[in-house]
């Protein structure tokens, strides 16, 4: 049996989140910008693998979509793995860190706004760079199967209700915030 002293209490976990918010708030702007851009670039790699699986294994998806869903669930977190390994910033996890930091009075609202705006925009720019510049211009995502897979994914997402989308987003962001 594992000894209880190896676990953090809820108070200690909250203090660790506040310490992370302080560290992120004190970063140089250039460090924040590079980390946010790299976060978008690295995170998008899992998404591109997600689309590629559906594009390349469309026949299996037609007969047994569960197999493709399991494979997609295995490759999508690769982007999160890269983000954690490199220690770069994602907008989603910054929301957790800075919310707790503001509530505890450790960071200012200005720190929050700067971090969230920069991380959101540069995560988006990094993602667009990978998806459009690297994948589209190289021809990877221009193939008919990739276009069809992308359209199918969007159509499936559009069929969800607001509540379904909200619950899925909350569940996904829970895991992102564990970074």
TrEMBL record:
Record keywords, A-Z: Membrane, Transmembrane, Transmembrane helix
Membrane-topology descriptor: Multi-pass membrane protein
GO biological-process terms attached to the record: nitrite transport
UniProt signal peptide: none
InterPro entries tied to this protein: Aquaporin-like, For/NO2_transpt
Keyword Protein transport among record annotations: no
Coiled-coil region: none
An annotated Gene Ontology molecular function: high-affinity secondary active nitrite transmembrane transporter activity
Main location, first listed in the record: membrane
An annotated GO cellular component: plasma membrane
Any Pfam family hit: Form_Nir_trans
Transmembrane regions listed in the UniProt entry: 32-55, 67-88, 95-121, 127-154
Cell location: Membrane
Family as reported in the entry's similarity comment: Belongs to the FNT transporter (TC 1.A.16) family.
Official protein name in the record: Formate/nitrite transporter
């Amino acid at each position: 049996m594992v000894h209880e002293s190896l676990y953090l209490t809820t108070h200690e976990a909250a203090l660790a989140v506040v310490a992370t918010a302080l560290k992120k708030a004190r970063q140089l702007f250039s460090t924040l910008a590079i980390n946010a851009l790299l976060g978008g670039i690295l995170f998008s790699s899992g998404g591109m693998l997600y689309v590629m699986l559906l594009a390349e294994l469309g026949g299996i998806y037609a007969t047994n979509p569960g197999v493709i869903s399991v494979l997609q669930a295995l490759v999508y977190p690769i982007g999160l793995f890269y983000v954690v390994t490199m220690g770069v910033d994602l907008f989603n996890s910054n929301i957790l860190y800075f919310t707790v930091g503001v509530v505890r009075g450790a960071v200012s609202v200005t720190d929050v706004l700067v971090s969230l705006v920069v991380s959101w925009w540069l995560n988006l720019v990094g993602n667009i760079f990978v998806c459009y510049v690297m994948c589209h211009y190289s021809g990877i995502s221009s193939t008919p199967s990739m276009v069809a897979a992308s359209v199918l994914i969007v159509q499936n997402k559009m069929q969800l209700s607001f509540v379904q989308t909200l619950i899925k987003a909350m569940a996904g962001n829970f895991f992102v915030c564990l970074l």
